[in-house]
Task: inverse folding
């Protein structure tokens, strides 16, 4: 008998989290290309320094190589991807089929999210689907894994072994509802949570206090989203154009006061500081480093945060 | 015209209760394929349309969502707000509109009877009921039929919050 059966999925991410070690995940910049080498090149800078690589599903409603295909390529190379599924583009029939397909390709982690609206992207005239919301998608994935059946009740001969993830954004209103929404996601079946970018640490501390009061940190692993800001202008752009991203004035101000040439380094430093603060918060199980178009910084950030070497499995 | 009533969620939940009691005696005539279906559809479209901007999903959960129609959310979310809500409480998609769920949450706090139902997980929607009368569907029990494979979870019990 394989020791694998103690686990829901046996993914590297699940093993690291269950062993109590501080986990690190990161996000792959999906190529606008049909060349698999572009995926491998992007993965190379991340693979050695994190326990799971997120393959985003047309984030910001911009079309790129599909997340399920990126995951299939990554599993071939022995990496442990986190397959992101957005409810924006596909209905329940497509989502369930893709979950089976992904699992067959060796995908063991999946992150089920609502998704940015189509109007956030460069094809705002597209039809939005939203047949499921994220909570219904998570619960359907759990039903497929644990009850070995589709939502229709039809049996699966081999259920997908998946470590189920959900997103959380503690930084936007209604603040008092956010912990309750997390409770709903965990009740629906989320095993781990990846949050939106955390730049407002006091807000997050407050959120985690309620999460701990409700005992939710013991029912799912909390991975906190972090990332380096390239400059004050990039920060300004992000907070006004990327939905759900909150960056306090103090952070923008700190970057603005830094000499132009040192801003990138300062952005990285802020990120490392936030990781160190987050690590001190009880109930945090890891970080999710998102460095859009600055992927080469991910390794440095993880190293400077004292999170290397990563466990073998 | 009557949309201002949305700011009185407690009154609306009482009205919901009253409505349910009022139509139950007529359940013999209020059937899915009955003659009164078009009349009820008309009544709901005008009444609930005016009050709640009802989208006629045919499976009304207003009392579980702060007497605020979740189908008016551009993403049709039935389980709470997405992560795109703006700092001023406005919608990610329509910056000049309040987030439906921010309003729903605020209103649910003023609803002693049904406010707590916000925590319930709403099952996936049944698109086949769209356009039909939710009152008739409620009397027939058709609005609470979930997909066969669905598992109903009690959030409070599972998370022990």
Result:
């Amino acid at each position: 008998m394989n020791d694998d059966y103690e686990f829901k999925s046996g993914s590297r991410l699940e093993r690291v989290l269950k062993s109590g070690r501080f986990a690190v995940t990161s996000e792959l910049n999906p190529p606008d290309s049909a060349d698999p080498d572009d995926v491998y090149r992007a993965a190379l800078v991340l693979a050695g320094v994190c326990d799971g690589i997120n393959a985003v599903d047309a984030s910001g409603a911009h079309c790129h190589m599909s997340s399920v295909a990126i995951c299939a390529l990554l599993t071939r190379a022995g990496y442990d991807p986190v397959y992101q599924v957005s409810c924006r583009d596909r209905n329940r029939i497509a989502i369930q089929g893709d979950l089976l397909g992904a699992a067959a390709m060796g995908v063991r982690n999946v992150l089920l999210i609502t998704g940015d609206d189509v109007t956030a992207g460069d094809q705002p005239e597209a039809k939005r689907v939203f047949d499921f919301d994220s909570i219904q998608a998570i619960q359907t994935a759990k039903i497929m894994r644990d009850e070995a059946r589709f939502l229709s009740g039809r049996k699966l001969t081999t259920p997908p072994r998946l470590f189920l993830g959900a997103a959380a954004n503690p930084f936007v209103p209604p603040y008092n509802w956010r912990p309750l929404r997390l409770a709903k996601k965990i009740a629906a079946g989320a095993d781990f949570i990846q949050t939106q970018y955390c730049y407002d640490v006091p807000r997050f501390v407050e959120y985690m206090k309620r999460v701990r009061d409700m005992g939710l940190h013991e029912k799912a692993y909390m991975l906190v989203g972090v990332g380096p800001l390239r400059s004050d202008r990039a920060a300004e752009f992000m907070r006004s154009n990327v939905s759900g991203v909150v960056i306090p004035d103090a952070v923008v101000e700190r970057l603005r006061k830094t000499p132009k040439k040192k801003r990138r380094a300062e952005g990285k430093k802020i990120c490392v500081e936030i990781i160190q603060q987050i690590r001190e918060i009880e109930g945090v199980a890891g970080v999710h480093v998102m460095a859009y178009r600055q992927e080469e910084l991910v390794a440095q950030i993880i190293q400077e945060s004292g999170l290397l070497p990563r466990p073998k499995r | 015209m009557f949309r201002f009533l949305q700011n009185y969620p407690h009154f609306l939940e009482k009205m919901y209760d009253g409505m349910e009691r009022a139509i139950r005696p007529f359940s013999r005539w209020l059937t899915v394929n009955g003659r009164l279906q078009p009349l009820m559809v008309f009544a709901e479209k005008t009444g609930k349309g005016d009050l709640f901007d009802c989208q006629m999903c045919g499976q009304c959960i207003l009392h579980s969502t702060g007497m605020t129609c979740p189908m008016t959310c551009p993403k049709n979310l039935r389980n709470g707000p997405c992560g795109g809500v703006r700092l001023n409480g406005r919608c990610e998609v329509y910056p000049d509109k309040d987030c439906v769920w921010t309003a729903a949450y605020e209103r649910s706090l003023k609803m002693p009877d049904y406010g707590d139902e916000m925590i319930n997980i709403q099952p996936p929607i049944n698109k086949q009921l769209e356009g039909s009368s939710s009152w008739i569907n409620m009397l027939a029990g058709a609005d609470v039929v979930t997909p066969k494979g669905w598992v109903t979870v009690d959030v409070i019990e599972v998370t022990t919050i």
Observations:
- Chain B has a mean pLDDT of 94.
- The radius of gyration of chain B is 16 Å.
